[in-house]
Design goal:
Layout (H helix, E strand, L loop, with lengths): L4 H13 L3 H17 L3 H28 L20 H7 L3 H4 L3 E5 L6 H14 L4 E5 H14 L2 H9 L3 E5 L8 H14 L4 E6 L13 H13 L1 E5 L5 H10 L1
Parallel strand pairs: 1-4, 1-5, 2-3, 3-4
Helix pairs in contact: 2-3, 3-6, 7-8, 7-9, 9-10
Pfam families: IstB_IS21 (PF01695)
Protein name: DNA replication protein DnaC
Keywords: ATP-binding, Nucleotide-binding
């Protein structure tokens, strides 16, 4: 097939101009395949558009995972449900469908250290990234320090606005916080702003009746829990630590 070099150069220029990198990189291959398979022009166009759609989804997935600030690349399939017998695997896999995000619901994982709370929250966050959702995985202490810094810098409004745009905010290890009045107010504002608008996942080693340890009073704890738990899936995990199990195996 004779190729018009001028047209070919113009095609490449236009594909760059309109930011269609996947078609730009693969259109020659797609054309050759269309000729071989005797596809119609409409079918060729469809195949080219599918190439671009798949490429954009993959780039978005990579970007979302990078921006999420995960500790690792944990997945549901990596989780040892056989060891963590207290966890309802069907419930976790249902949450991994992300319907809770569409419903603007929350998830709270409660349990002692090392039982898989962070792993499961990160794995669900990873699924959200793969489905094009924006996610932020934040240690609770670091998050509150970041908000306090925003108060000092006069950028709190912008910070809250940025956080509200995130589809799924994961706050890890809230049980290790001990808030003063300022941080308590900031945390309440964060929960209130996301209430019935965007989803949260929270992990904690403290049962709800001990959240007055985190906040300055039982009243403050109750105000936060009222909004956090109203539309929430509470997953209580008991059992031995995965880390203790791993250390025991390595020591054998």
């Amino acid at each position: 097939m004779k190729i018009n070099k001028g047209i070919d150069i113009e095609i490449q220029r236009l594909l760059k101009q309109f930011k269609l990198p996947d078609i730009h990189n693969k259109y020659e291959e797609a054309i050759e395949s269309a000729i071989k398979e005797k596809l119609s022009y409409r079918e060729l166009l469809y195949n080219l558009l599918i190439l671009e759609e798949q490429g954009k989804k993959e780039r978005l997935r990579i970007k979302n995972i990078k921006n999420a600030n995960f500790d690792g690349n944990k997945t549901i399939d990596d989780f040892d449900f056989a060891f963590a017998k207290s966890i309802n695997q069907d419930k976790i896999r249902d949450l991994a469908t992300l319907r809770f995000i569409e419903k603007r619901e929350n998830i709270v994982f409660i349990g002692p250290p090392g039982v898989g709370k962070s792993h499961l929250s990160e794995a669900i966050g990873m699924r959200a990234c793969e489905e094009g959702k924006t996610v932020l995985f934040a240690n609770a202490i670091d998050l509150m320090e970041d908000l306090s810094s925003a108060v000092r810098n006069g950028t709190l409004k912008q910070k809250f606005s940025k956080l509200l745009k995130i589809d799924l905010l994961i706050i890890d290890d809230i049980g290790y916080l001990k808030m003063d009045k300022e941080k308590e107010s900031l945390f309440f504002q964060l929960i209130r702003q996301r209430y019935e608008k965007k989803s949260l996942i929270v992990t904690t080693n403290l049962p709800f009746n001990r959240w007055d340890y985190i906040f300055t009073s039982e009243l403050a704890a109750a105000a936060v829990l009222d909004r956090l738990l109203h539309h929430s899936h509470v997953i209580s995990i008991t059992g031995d630590s995965f880390r203790v199990k791993q250390n025991f195996r390595e020591g054998q």
